[in-house]
Design a protein that fits this description.
The strands form two sheets. Strands 3, 4, 7, 8, 9 and 10 form a six-stranded antiparallel beta sheet that branches. This protein has a four-stranded antiparallel beta sheet with strand order 1-2-6-5, with no helix packed on it. The relative contact order is 0.25. It starts with a strand and ends with a strand. The chain has strands spanning 2-6, 12-19, 27-31, 39-40, 42-44, 49-57, 61-68, 72-74, 81-84, 90-95. The chain is mainly beta. The protein has a single domain (2-95), classed as Immunoglobulins (Immunoglobulin-like, Sandwich), CATH 2.60.40. This is 1,4-alpha-glucan branching protein. It comes from Pseudoalteromonas lipolytica.
Amino acid sequence: MLSKRFFKTKDETEVTFEFQHPDAEDVQLVAEFTDWQPVPMKFSKKEQVFKCKQRLPLDKEFHFRYLINGQVWDNDHQADGYIPNGFGTENSIVNTQRA
């Protein structure tokens, strides 16, 4: 799940990435804005979800995926969209335009 916070005085959007998976012990966010380098997500025991916040430039679109336990790739099932990648699957899309 994606949640976004827009700022009146900044040209950026704070995006909170949230991901749940029953077998996940470790989840990493892998995205264009991280140069496709994995970023660890923190597990919230209270909400039973992995979370990561990123500040992204306003009015852009970025591709991303989740890497579960260092082995399994998955998409955000509530992403802003999906686009085919070069591996025969799809990437999730996050859009930072104001609604």
